[in-house]
Write a structure and sequence with these properties.
This protein is an alpha/beta fold. The protein is built from 15 helices and twelve strands. The protein binds pyridoxal-5'-phosphate. Pyridoxal-5'-phosphate (PLP) binds next to helix 3.
C-alpha cells in the first residue's frame, strides 16, 4: 500500500467499541487491573503509554518504514531523551549549521560534563564529515547527528555516504527529518539508525500541537538502548497528551497533500526569488544552483520541502527592511503550518550563530504561490 493511502485511512480500522472511523480519544490516565494484577486492556498508566498515542506512533513508524516510533511532548524532549539514553561519556558529531536550540543543548551538555565532546562539522560536504570521523579517536559511544535539509540554511547531507562513514567509526546515526518529512525522504532507507522529528512542524501541520518523535530501525528496535529511550520518556513524563496525539494523527492523515502543495509552492517561490534583482542568494535544495542539489535529487523524491531561505542584496539592513514590508508572511518562529512565516534567524539565534546576518527564512504554507510571490516582490522592490 502506498504510504499516502495508509496515511489517508489512518488508523486503518474502525474502533472496536463503536465502529467509528476516526480514532477515539482516551483521556484516562489510569486503567483497571485484572484480578491477577494484569492489565486486560493492555495499558496501566498514561506516563508509560496511552491508547490515543499508539495509532499516531504506528502511522509514523509505517511512513518512515521504521519498526517502532515513540512520540514525545516536543521535538527537544525526543532529542534529549535519546541523548540521555546513551551511555555517559558520549561524543556527538553534528553539523555546525543545524537547528540552533539543539546545538546549544549539545554545547551545554559538554560544559556540564555530560557529553564527552562535540565535533561540529563546518559544512555539509562528505569530505568534511570524513575528516571529522578520521580525527575522531574517542573510545566511548559516539552519536552522529545529521540534519538534512538543515534549518535554516538548507544544507544537504549525503545520507548514504555519511551514515556509512559514521558506522565505520562505530557511531550511532540519528537523522533529523523534520524539514524533509517522510513524504520526501526516509533516512532509515539510507542507513540511519534512528529518525528524529519535531512533529510540531509539518507532521502535524496546523501549528496547534507541540510534539516530537523518534523512529527506530529494525536493528535498533530490540536493543537495550531503545528500551532506555522508552524508559527515559516515562521517567521524565515527556509523553504526548492524548488530545495532542489525536490532533497529530488527524494532521498526518492529510500529510501527503499538504507537503505536496507546500513543496511545489516553495519551489515556485525559490525560483521567483532567484530571478529577483534584489536577491543575492537563495538557499533551496530544489534549485539546480544549490550546491547540494544533486544529492537532494537522489535522496528526496516528489519535492524538496517547504523551507526557503534567501539573502537580499544590501546586507542585514535590507533584510530587516524587507521583513518589515512583508504583509502576508507573518514574522513568527517555527515552520510547517498552513500559514507562511518569515524569520530573521540570526537575530533570534544571537551570538555565535553561523547563520548570515542578512538571511531570511521562509516557511511556505498552503496559500496560493502568486500571493506569496507578490508579497515578496512588493517587499523587495
Ligand atoms: C529542524 C528542527 N529540529 C528540531 C526542532 C525542535 O523541535 P520542538 O520545537 O518541537 O521541540 C525544531 C524546531 O524548530 C526544528 O526546526
Amino acid at each position: 500500500m502506498d504510504p499516502s493511502t495508509r496515511a489517508a485511512r489512518a488508523p486503518g480500522q474502525p474502533d472496536p467499541t463503536m465502529r467509528g472511523l476516526v480514532a477515539p480519544i482516551y483521556p484516562s490516565t489510569t486503567y483497571e487491573r485484572g484480578r491477577e494484577g494484569d492489565y486486560p486492556g493492555g495499558h496501566s498508566y498514561s506516563r508509560d503509554q496511552n491508547p490515543t498515542v499508539e495509532p499516531a506512533e504506528e502511522l509514523l513508524a509505517a511512513l518512515e518504514e521504521g519498526t517502532e516510533a515513540l512520540l514525545f511532548s516536543s521535538g527537544m524532549a525526543a532529542a534529549t531523551a535519546l541523548l540521555d539514553a546513551l551511555d555517559p561519556g558520549t561524543h556527538v558529531i553534528a553539523p555546525a549549521r543545524m537547528y540552533w536550540t539543539l546545538r546549544r543543548w549539545f554545547e551545554r551538555e559538554v560544559e556540564r560534563g555530560r557529553l564527552a565532546g562535540l565535533t561540529l562539522v563546518d559544512g555539509p560536504e562528505e569530505e568534511r564529515w570524513a575528516a571529522a570521523f578520521a580525527e575522531h579517536d574517542h573510545t566511548g559511544p559516539t552519536l552522529a547527528w545529521l540534519e538534512t535539509p538543515s534549518n535554516p540554511m538548507g544544507d544537504v547531507i549525503d545520507l548514504i555516504e555519511v551514515a556509512e562513514l559514521a558506522h565505520e567509526a562505530g557511531a550511532l546515526v540519528a537523522a533529523d527529518n523534520t524539514t524533509a518529512t517522510p513524504v520526501h525522504t526516509r533516512p532509515l532507507e539510507f542507513g540511519a539508525d534512528v529518525v528524529f522529528h519535531s512533529a510540531t512542524k509539518q507532521l502535524n501541520g496546523h501549528g496547534d500541537v507541540l510534539a516530537g518523535a523518534l523512529v527506530c530501525s529494525d536493528e535498533l528496535a530490540g536493543t537495550e538502548l531503545w528500551a532506555r529511550v522508552r524508559h527515559e520518556r516515562a521517567y521524565r513524563g515527556a509523553v504526548l497528551g492524548p488530545f495532542e496525539a489525536w490532533l497529530l494523527l488527524r494532521g498526518m492523515r492529510t500529510l501527503f497533500v499538504r507537503v505536496a502543495r507546500s513543496s511545489a509552492t516553495a519551489f515556485e517561490v525559490a525560483a521567483a526569488l532567484a530571478e529577483h534583482p534584489s536577491v543575492a542568494e537563495v538557499r533551496y535544495p530544489g534549485l539546480p544552483s544549490h550546491p547540494g542539489h544533486d544529492i537532494a535529487a537522489r535522496q528526496m523524491h516528489d519535492g524538496f520541502g517547504m523551507l526557503v531561505s534567501f539573502r537580499p542584496t544590501g546586507g542585514e539592513e535590507a533584510a530587516r527592511r524587507a521583513l518589515g514590508r512583508l504583509t502576508l508572511f507573518t514574522d513568527a518562529t517555527s515552520l510547517g503550518s498552513t500559514e507562511s512565516l518569515v524569520e530573521h534567524r540570526a537575530r533570534i539565534e544571537g551570538e555565535g550563530t553561523p547563520v548570515p546576518a542578512d538571511l531570511l527564512r521562509l516557511s511556505i504554507g498552503l496559500e496560493h504561490a502568486d500571493d506569496l510571490i507578490g508579497d515578496l516582490r512588493q517587499a523587495l522592490d
